Amino acid sequence: MNNLRSAPAPADPAAISADDDPVGAFCRHVTLRLPGNPAGPLAGLTFAAKDIYDIAGHVTGCGNPDWLASHPPAPRTATAVQDLLDAGATLVGKTLTDELAFSLHGENAHYGTPVNSAAPDRVPGGSSNGSAAAVAAGLVDLALGSDTGGSVRAPASYCGLFGIRPSHGAIPLAGAMPLAPSFDTVGWFTRSADLLTRVGNALLPADAADWRPSRVLFLEPAFALANDTARAPLHRAAETLGAAIGPTAAWVPDPPDLTRWLTPFQALQWREIWQSHRDWITATRPHFGPGIAERFAAVAGVTDDQVAEARAFRLAAGGRLLAALGGDGVLITPTVPGPAPLKGLPRQAVAAERQRALALLCPAGLARLPQVSLPVGRVDGAPVGLSLIGPPGSDRRLLALTCAIAGDLPALNTPPV
Phi and psi (nearest 5°) for 142? Predict the structure, then answer.
């Protein structure tokens, strides 16, 4: 247990309550404030934690009222939260999540949709919607999310933030609700590349990979999947960033169609999701909102043959991706196809947007790679992001690279083409 919890710190900010939260980012079932170590490198900064991370003495709600009602208070605080406290940051609240973190959209049928301050007519993205919304609104300096299929990277792009999905396993997930354990990662949001890196220095181990990026690969099929109005501006932004790193070249993966990567990606995730939550769902019969209910019904139907094929694909395609990166290559890709979807879209349109976004997000998850999303400007009046992907264990150098080129981010204030 952290003895800093009882230490007085009158100069530190207070917990964020409903009255202090104009964007609806914070949970209403818990109000808390845990002061950080005043001597830590992040002292003086505030953070929020997605409501899948345990806080000792409080119930973790995971975005669903039935989960909240059927679980006891956590006996201890999640490792990632504790590490930030020990590094000096002060926790001022827990943020909304899509139900059991099983969404990429950011609309929760039970608790509402946090406001995307960068594009208020659009969703913030999920499932780390509250964390992204809190940072985008300036309510906290940084926020913890989680990224299984893209739930840090997508909201970062949609809300005009910096966000990272670290190498799988780089940061312990103890005290966090599991979703698909071979994909689950701790992630975080900031409004600057510098702070994204400072948080990484507090949470990440030393790099395991001897990776020195000097060669750039454009993931061409990903640019082809970008929205019509976003494709050309994103490619121009990628060329600008790539030129700040080294020689650039187009790269086409095998198989080249990223939608073919999505099928094994979902088969593996869905099998793990069902294993993680089958017992609770069967015993509790919870009420899920639209879209979430259908996905949980679908995960039970994945067959052993589908899982075996997906594992073989993951091994082969991931190996080819690692070989392409080598010890000096960095992959650049649109984080998602374009700006955040508008609020209130029909369910069929939401599902189609989700599948297109996941096709771009799934390679890093399958290959367990670190990926940083950088805001590069606006298209159709809303933020868009590009991502840098490195080999596993290159997280700190990837963050350093992000800092080095952040000043080269183009404005993208050009008319759609």
Answer: -155, 165
Q: Active site residue: 128, 151, 157, 167, which one?
A: 151
* Sheet with 371-379: strands ordered across: 90-95, 46-50, 142-146, 186-190, 162-165, 371-379, 382-389, 329-334, 215-219, 248-251
Establish whether 127 is a catalytic residue: yes
Spell 138-174 as b/e; 16+ CB within 10 A means b.
ebbbbbbbbbbbbbbbbbbbbbbbbbbbbbbebbebe
Q: Point out the catalytic residue in the list 50, 94, 167, 394.
A: 50
394 as an active site residue: the answer is: no
Planar angle of CA 197, 177, 269, nearest 5 degrees? 90
Q: 209 lies in a domain? A: no
Per-residue pLDDT of the chain (417 residues; tens, 9 = 90+): 233 333 333 345 788 877 889 999 999 999 999 999 999 999 999 999 999 999 999 999 999 999 999 999 999 999 999 999 999 999 999 999 999 999 999 999 999 999 999 999 999 998 999 999 999 999 999 999 999 999 999 999 999 999 999 999 999 999 999 999 999 999 999 999 999 999 999 999 999 989 999 999 999 999 999 999 999 999 999 999 999 999 999 999 999 999 999 999 999 999 999 999 999 999 999 999 998 999 999 999 999 999 999 999 999 999 999 999 999 999 999 999 999 999 999 989 999 999 999 999 999 999 999 999 999 999 999 999 999 999 999 999 999 999 999 987 766 643 332
Model pTM above 0.85: yes
Identify the domain boundary among 143, 170, 203: 203
CA–CA gap between residue 29 and residue 203 (Å, rounded): 28
Q: Give me the catalytic one of 127, 146, 387, 394.
A: 127
Asked whether residue 231 is domain-assigned, the answer is: yes
Q: Does residue 313 lie within any of the structural domains?
A: yes
DSSP-derived secondary structure letter, 346 = -
Tell me, yes or no, whether 24 and 148 share the same domain.
Answer: yes
Is 103 part of the annotated catalytic residue set?
no
Say how far apart CA 148 and CA 362 lie, in whole Å.
Answer: 9
One domain, residues 34 and 178? yes
Render 98-140 in DSSP notation, one character per residue.
SGGG--SS--BTTTB----TTSTTB---SSSHHHHHHHHTTSS
Q: Is residue 413 part of a domain?
A: no
Alpha carbons within 13 angstroms on the beta-carbon side of residue 253 total: 31
How far is CA 293 from its chain centroid?
22
Q: Which domain holds residue 43?
A: 3-203
CA distance 236 to 231: 9
